[in-house]
Amino acid sequence: MPQTLIQPEFKVDIDYDKCHKCGRCVQQCGWGVYAFNERPLPDDAKCRACHRCVTYCPAHCITIKKNDLAMKTNDNWSDAARKSIWKQAETGGVLLTGMGNDKPYQSIFDHLVLDACQVTNPSIDPLREPMELRTYLGRKPDSVSVESDGDGGYRLAEGAGMTNNVELATPIIFSPMSYGSVSLNVHKSLAMAATRLGTLMNTGEGGLHADLYPYAGNVIVQVASGRFGVDPEYLNRGAAIEIKVGQGAKPGIGGHLPGEKIDRQVSSTRMIPQGTDAISPAPHHDIYSIEDLRQLIYSLKEASGYKPVGVKIAAVHNVAAIASGIVRAGADYVYLDGFRGGTGAAPQVIRDNIGIPVEIAVAVVDQRLRDEGIRNQASIIAAGSIRSSADVAKAIALGADVVAIGSATLMALGCHMCQGCHTGCCSWGLTTQKPELTRRVDPEWGAERLVNLVSAWSHEVQEILGALGVNAVESLRGSRERLRAIGLDEQTCRILGVKPAGM
Amino acid sequence: MKQVMDPTVPQVGYLKIEPPVAREGDTATIDAKNIYYRQLNEAVRRAYADGAKKVVLENVNGQRYIGNGITGKDLKIEVRGTAGNDMAMFMNGPTVEVFGNAQDGVSNTMNAGTVIVHGDAGDVLGYGMRGGRVFIKGDVGYRVGIHMKAYEGLVPAMVCGGKARDFFGEYMAGGMLVLLGMNSQFEGPLVGGYLGTGMHGGVIYVRGEVEPWQTGKEVGVFEASAEDMAELKPVLEEYCAAQGMDLAEVLSVPFTKLVPVSHRPYGKLYAYT
What we know:
The structure holds 2 protein chains of 2 kinds.
Chain A: E1 10-14, H1 24-28, E2 34-36, E3 40-42, H2 52-56, E4 62-66, H3 79-91, E5 94-97, E6 112-114, E7 135-137, E8 146-148, E9 154-156, E10 166-168, E11 172-174, H4 184-197, E12 201-202, E13 219-223, H5 232-237, E14 240-244, E15 255-257, H6 264-270, E16 278-280, H7 290-304, E17 309-314, H8 319-328, E18 333-337, E19 346-347, H9 348-353, H10 358-371, E20 379-383, H11 389-398, E21 402-405, H12 407-412, H13 435-438, H14 443-468, E22 483-485, H15 490-496, E23 499-500
Parallel strand pairs in A: 11-21, 12-13, 13-14, 14-17, 17-18, 18-20, 20-21, 22-23
Antiparallel strand pairs in A: 1-4, 2-3, 5-19, 6-22, 7-10, 8-9, 15-16
Chain B: E1 21-24, E2 27-31, H1 37-49, E3 54-61, E4 76-82, E5 92-99, E6 112-117, E7 133-136, E8 157-160, E9 173-179, E10 201-207, E11 219-223, H2 226-243, H3 247-250, E12 255-260, E13 270-272
Parallel strand pairs in B: 2-3, 3-4, 4-5, 5-6, 6-7, 7-8, 8-9, 9-10
Antiparallel strand pairs in B: 1-2, 10-12, 11-12
């Protein structure tokens, strides 16, 4: 019997005439593709096309190609569907995968376009005029009172303004990725970059490593169902606290960080024994209702001297009503994670088939909170595949206060989207705890690249705002009149609150 | 029929005012009658900040979050009345003694300290608890000891003197959970179903026997050995001292021990793509 019916997805092609026989590819590959016998000998079956070897080959002699092995064309039984069946027939296992939903669902962002000023109202040049990106995360008062600043101007009256808000220099924050799912060097890169940018990183559910304490003022500390690393000190360190109820890549299910990823450092940060699985139950067992959620929100506030507490949920069918409940329960922000959000590991069937796009979720939640007159009570964070500054601007125009980026930050650090995060063998040293791999990310280098990325996107958002003729990101928030749809059906346009182009 | 609130009946609720505090030596006594939890807990924190070592709360009637997040080994809280939800949540060191019953969520995600309840307690006790002691005199509700853990020097122990409902010790990852079934006001089985479901660490001791329908498939059931009893006895001694019970009587019935079959219960569930 053959060991497997699944043929390699890629072919590793080495031009041996050019090859230096230096063995660097052998050393760089985290997947164990290469053996070496006078020259590198690849095992195609192990290759995930992460391009680590290609990037580091001094002779540029490696090419990764798609394995063109023809399968009988069948638009119903895709190659992927056939391979999945073979895999499960061989193993009997739940198919586990990493990163976000890669199925060809329609991208709504790609069918939305932004407005610009022409003739009748002036656009603004952000290079020469102030363009405000500063954003406040948290509950806004129902009304504000102002007082004279004694110099002909006004300022917010003391105690009547934006108490308990987190100030962000840009409406882009980093999304939660736990230490354990990603390496400590990734966490350090994110924390350093967040501090330099004046924005936030998020611990995810794996606790806060002591090396990150100096950056804690720019960290959201997360509390998930496993309660890993959660103690009074942890809650008091962060700028804000986040209750993780769900994740866009795996709504409704928990997480299992496999025992082999729980080394000494991860163990001490999560405060669990080394080598045992870190199991996050699917629900928080102290949250079975909105009332219970309110209880936990206020428990966290009590324990932390009333820091802002947000709630992260996966975008699901009834998201507007759920978000309304969350806001009424006292959350300072609602984090909506769309169905394209990434993950360190998730069952493929869940990742690819559960949840709704973040564009829809943001639009319906924003509208619902406005209709109920409670939009000021919480900020909305949009996440789940924000791929560019255009997505940032569109998400804000649909109603988000802030967007969170996760997959994009990993790409800034070298990720090539090979979707092997769950294997713990990431050749780029990102989603692994193997010391020989994690040291590939220098936090200083990583922080610089992240600062570059977010600065560039922020500049681009400023350009978009200038074209729209507004001078603050506040003016774009929920301004769906500045969006038009191309190629979206009438029903979707209505749900988004966006007119088709031409109207 | 739609219910309409009668405007002639005055609204009764908690008062959002500072409670009366009486200070004697290092003890502060706070009258919790009709005081909203937030002001009450602020008064507790203030008493400790002012140097009190012990806080006595009189007339407690369901106020939440008592002892929440309080850090300090030598601090004490005495609760007279019924403690509300999430008592001693995130607590790190103090001793809380309740003369009355406690509601849900006692010792939720607690790090260290001791909680003694001279009565019954509700659901979700010791959820994700990482260290310390919880000694309940009477019955407990559902989901007790879910996801209890242990970590290096921190090994939590919880002893419930009465009976427990379903999901006792579910997802348990560490520590010790003990059920005695002695001070119960209920007929029926000692413990409900799904005992230790998903358990992957720690140990559960039950005074008496459990039947197969009661246990989750991730646990192995054994008669407690002499070695096990040597491990259990010091905890029971502490419990009996705290609750005024007779250790010999507690030990007069053989204990059943439940431990996880695997530390990686879901390790073989997946096929990697």
